[in-house]
Structure formats: C-alpha cells, structure tokens
Write a structure and sequence with these properties.
about 350 residues, Rossmann fold, alpha/beta, Dihydrodipicolinate Reductase, domain 2, 16 strands
Length: about 350
C-alpha cells in the first residue's frame, strides 16, 4: 500500500487527484483528522491521522504500508522521523523536497537503507526530477565534465503556501554551491547569467537548489551551480540581503512572514497551472574548455510533481535499495515520459 502523508496540503491534494485519475489507491495521512475528512476521496480511501513526535505512533500507522510518499514540509523538520521510521519498518521512502539538507540526510542513511532493503528517494517532484534528468543527460553528452550549471524558471503559475513558508524559514541565510566535490556556503545571488530557456533568455541568479546535492550523486560532476530566473529589479534587493541578512534571520521577522503567507491562497489556480510551464536549462564543461548545453520545457511544477511522484511511487519497488536520485534510479529520459515535456540539445 502507498501512504501519502500531507494529503490535505496543496500539492498533496494534486497528488490525490492524479492518483485517482491513474487508478492508484492511497492511504491518506496527516496530523489533522478534520482536514483529512474534508478530502473528496476520504470516504473511499483509508484515512490515518497521526503526528511525527512519537516514533511508536508513526510505526503503528505505517503497518501494511510498502511505500511512503511524504508531502508535508518543511522537510528539514519532518523528513528525519519519517526516514528513520521507514528504515525501522522496511518501507520505501519518497518525498517532494528540494532542500539540500534533506538530500544530504538521506545520503548519510544510505547504508542503513541498504541493510533494511529499502529505497530512500527524496525529491520526486519538480524538486528535482527535471533538473536531475537534464544533469544526467548532459553528463552523458560530455562524460569528462567537471562543471555543471543548472537553471530553472517558470512561465505563469506561482508558488504554493507550503513552498513559500519553506522559503520564509530560510530568510537571510546564505546560498550554496558544490566546489570540487564539497558543498560550500556562498551569498545568495553571488553569480548571475542569462539562461537560454525555450522562448527567450531570462535573467537568473544562483540559489541553493537541491541539485547542489543530488546532481553530484547522479553525475559525479564535482563543481555545481544552480540558478533561478528572477526579475532583474528583484535581484537588486537580493544583493542588499548581504547587509541586512541578520535582520531577516530574526525569529519574529520570519514568523511575521509566515503569518502573511498563511493568509494567502493555498497555491496557483487550476487555470494558472494549465497555462504555466516549467523551464530548465543546463550546461556542462570540461577541463579542455569543451561544453554542451540542453534545455527542457515541461508542465507547471506542481502539476509535474503530482505526475512524477505517482510514477515513481508505482516503480520504486524495482529500484536498488539505498539512497537514490530520480535520474540515477530511472535514467535521464524518465522526465520525457511526462506528457508535454520536450528536451532540446543546444
């Protein structure tokens, strides 16, 4: 059985819809029984309300579960008890995180997961399936690549409340990149570029995206930078963050930001998702100065997350035990199985 934790969140509900559409039966789980009961499928699928504070309660609610799909962030706070429970109970673990710390946590548990005969595969959605697949595709084009740049942007759409809250909890923090195989801290937006996405180039700045972790394990490329498309005017404010980051890190400032986010919409409307597109670009280079570039055009990130999460949940039993990344588990062409996805070498 497949248990979805965080089923009543914005992305959780999209996953429920796609699971129903594809005939995938779920156990619906989360902290609140009241919120679980409001889900349209709660009368036909089993409901299990439980929190993550008590390992014994988690274990009890994971009985008869073979795959856990975790969709309740911020995952830096919620992933550890779930990963440990999956190892104890012999259950495959999946989540939809994009947080570097969570990927590194899963990698550190690799041997325990192998011993338990389970797969730990965080990042089964937009974070980081399309970028991970593009990274491996580029690595195959230039096997001796030493540097990787990945950039993403969106056409239309928007962010969910959960994503925004995760971002609010990292206000004022440094960015990150991987250099010579090691993750190092750098200022957010310390580098910029114009990424040639489908349609037209877009201004992008460095951010601490999950591929700083995952792309290294997928490709072995030692130096990795990740970028996000932003309006140039917004970048001016990002640069100033270096001087008042201390203020943004204050707990009351972050709490105020979270409270404002919670008053807003749960996420992009169905129409915005339908009209929105995900844009991904990547470039690899080697010590000889040779390089290769490619780009992806895919559905809106939230729609894509629902699709790839269920696809992976239905296939994870065939993956080798231990820590895995999406492309390492399913290959660089996995993302092309999602309808509306195009890849182009530049």
């Amino acid at each position: 059985m497949l248990l979805l934790y965080g089923a009543y969140g914005y992305t959780g509900q999209l996953i429920c819809d796609y699971a129903k559409e594809t005939g995938t039966k779920l156990i619906l789980a989360g902290r609140s029984i009241e919120k679980l009961k409001t889900l349209p499928y709660s009368k036909e699928w089993e409901v299990r309300p439980f929190g993550l504070d008590d390992p014994a309660i988690i274990d009890q609610n994971l009985k008869e579960v073979s795959v856990l799909l975790h969709a309740a962030g911020p995952f830096i706070h919620t992933a550890k008890p779930m990963m440990e429970a999956c190892i104890r109970n012999g259950i495959h673990y999946l989540d939809i995180t994009g947080e570097i710390g969570v990927f590194e946590m899963a990698h550190a548990l690799d041997k325990k997961a192998q011993a338990a005969g389970i797969v730990l595969l965080p990042g089964v959605g937009f974070d980081v399936v399309p970028t991970d697949c593009l990274a491996l595709h580029l690595k195959n084009l230039l096997p001796d690549a030493t540097h990787l740049q990945l950039a993403f942007s969106a056409s239309g759409g928007g962010v969910s409340r959960g994503t925004a809250i995760t971002m609010a909890q990292s206000l004022g923090e440094d960015g990150a990149m991987r250099k010579d195989g090691k993750i190092i801290r750098v200022p957010v937006g310390y580098r910029t570029l114009m990424a040639p996405f489908h349609g037209k180039p877009r201004f992008c700045m460095t951010i601490p995206w999950g591929d700083v972790s995952t792309a290294y394990y997928t490709t072995g490329i030692p130096t990795i930078e990740t970028y996000m498309g932003v309006p140039p005017k917004s970048y001016k404010w990002v640069k100033l963050q270096r001087f008042f980051g201390w203020f943004l890190r204050m707990s009351w400032v972050r709490k105020m930001a979270e409270n404002r986010i919670r008053k807003g919409a749960a996420g992009p409307s169905e129409k915005r998702r339908e009209n929105g597109k995900s844009l991904v670009w990547g470039k690899v280079s080697n010590a000889k100065g040779e390089s290769r570039e490619a780009r992806l055009l895919a559905p809106n990130g939230y729609t894509l997350t629902a699709i790839t999460a269920i696809m992976i949940a239905n296939r994870v039993k065939n993956v080798n035990p231990g820590f895995q990344t999406p492309a390492a588990a399913f290959g660089p062409d996995f993302i092309l199985e999602v309808a509306g996805t195009e890849r182009e070498d530049i």
